[in-house]
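Sat 14:20. Reprocessing the chain from the morning session after the first attempt stalled halfway. Input below, unchanged.
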Amino acid sequence: MGNFEWPWQYEFPPFFTLQPNLEVRKKQLQAWCDLLLAYHKHHRIYTLDVKEAASSPLFSNAKLNRKLSTEGIQAVLEDLRVKGNIEWTDKGRARCLVMWRTPEEWGNLIYRWASNNGMTNTVCTLYELTSGEDTAKEEFYGLEDWLLKRALKCLERQRKAEMIAFDTNEGVKFF
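Finished this time. Tokens:
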């Protein structure tokens, strides 16, 4: 994993202040949303703690001595929630799940892998999908369990897979 490439806005001090003009703010929030998702994807982070994130490099540029305000962070997260990229895990909105790909997109990637590798009409354990050597080079390798199950549920709805439980394991059969 190489170094994360920050967008040009990250070096632009006004980026860290919510802009009063609604059109400018809309573009600013989109840039923040893109940055947050790219950052989480690059580092393969699936959760965000708001308090920790406020002082992390994501929202705080030490070189510029600038931070996005709590109000700004909440605006970015609300935008992402509306778009379906985050989901709050608590009523106080202190932690959220981050989805840089939707469960449907993950499901499509997994199904493409299963089809391309002759895995249709066979059963794979969830462990094999996210931790097996056959998937080590796949983008879904290391995918967290909660997101994997959501992706597989999407495939079930499309009648492309069926989740099954056996012994103490969980698996999926691809059609």
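The two ends are 34 Å apart (CA to CA).
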